[in-house]
Specification:
alpha+beta, two-stranded antiparallel ribbon, 10 helices, Heat Shock Protein 90, 2 domains, about 350 residues
Length: about 350
């Protein structure tokens, strides 16, 4: 009983627990045999009654089913999948040479007293051998094709799951990072008892709502992403001194464009953390977002203090830019261009994304 269950699981290519898919595969087999049965009935020119023709073709199906399921349940798993091709072919031929004479003998005695039906059985014996072997080997071809499609589908599903898991991990690295920086800004202003603190709380609330509830989708409206950037810049303007020049220009019309969430914010955070915060004199951050129906063009340039020697093998901009590049490779493969220019006194990023 255990071996029989293993054989059934092999033919369905599914574990025992997945009953809906297994029964779906059984339905496919039934459809195939019913179609073949109708095909045999259509080409049956024996001239017998409908009942006799139905019975004869049902017996034919039993012989064809014997070679097919002997092949699928025994020969393929025990010989072909173990790369014993020679033994597999010999056993398939042996099964053909056993089943074909049995089929011919059965119908020869069934057609007793009807020589016009018995004679073709003997005369076409070679053709019956060829047909039986063709059906048996044809099931092998179908098995290989269906296994290939199944493995391809499983591979694609695994790739999708891996990509989604990695994206969730990358976004989980991003969100707490920005929240931590913003809370630091709020803390600094509360120490000064600044009247700007309530305004920061409101903007922080909007940012947290966006990060926690609206960034769980693969894509978000570009308009909401831009609003999030403006809130972030407003918070930085409240925190920075009056000597800091912060400009954000949006060119083009934002309508129904969709984009992956939190792609641009690491560049802004990087411009302040590794740019303005490293210099003592006045500085600037210039952001330009050009929007079209099918692409967005984002550029940011900021001043910075004297370059501090970086640790060996540490990428410019820290983990934020590394995460952005990784997300771009996952979400927009071969559909984006990212250029980073780390100059002595400025740092610039230019990103173009094809939204199609």
């Amino acid at each position: 009983m255990k071996k029989a269950t293993q054989h059934i699981n092999y033919i369905t290519n599914l574990p025992p627990a997945i009953l809906p898919s297994k029964w779906g595969r059984i339905v496919y087999h039934l459809i195939f045999w019913l179609t073949l049965f109708a095909f045999l009935l259509y080409f049956d020119d024996s001239g017998l009654s409908r009942t006799d023709r139905w019975f004869n073709e049902f017996i034919n199906l039993l012989f064809y089913g014997a070679i097919v399921y002997f092949n699928l349940l025994y020969l393929i798993p025990n010989y072909l999948t173990k790369k014993r091709l020679g033994t597999y072919l010999l056993l398939l031929l042996a099964a053909t040479f056993v089943l074909t004479p049995l089929r011919v003998i059965f119908f020869y005695f069934r057609f007793s007293g009807m020589p016009h039906l018995q004679q073709p059985l003997i005369g076409n014996l070679n053709n019956y051998f060829a047909l039986t072997f063709f059906i048996g080997s044809g099931s092998t071809v179908l098995k290989i094709i269906t296994d290939w499609f199944r493995q391809l589908r499983e591979h694609q599903e695994l790739q999708t799951q891996t990509m989604q898991s990695e994206l969730r991990f990358l976004k989980s690295q991003i969100n707490p990072h920005f929240l931590f920086n913003t809370l630091n800004n709020l803390y600094a202003l509360t120490l000064k008892k600044s009247d700007k603190a309530p305004e920061i709380v409101i903007k922080l609330s909007e940012m947290m709502r966006y990060m926690l509830y609206e960034c769980n989708e693969k894509q978000v409206p570009l308009q909401k992403e831009v609003h999030y950037l403006k809130n972030y810049l407003d918070l930085e303007k409240l925190r920075q001194s009056n000597d800091i020049d912060i400009n954000f220009l949006v060119e083009g019309q934002i309508t129904d464009q969709q984009i992956a969430p939190l792609l641009f914010i690491p560049f802004l955070e990087n411009s302040f953390k590794h740019g303005l915060n490293t210099q003592l004199q006045a500085g600037f951050v210039n952001i330009h977002l050009k929007v079209a129906d099918k692409y967005v063009d984002f550029s940011i340039e900021n001043s910075k203090g004297q370059t501090i020697p970086r640790q060996e093998n540490r990428p410019s901009g820290g983990i934020g830019l590394v995460n952005v590049r990784r997300r771009l490779n996952l979400l927009y493969p071969e559909r984006y261009q990212l250029q980073i220019h780390n100059n002595p006194n400025t740092f610039a990023v230019h990103l173009t994304i094809d939204l199609e």
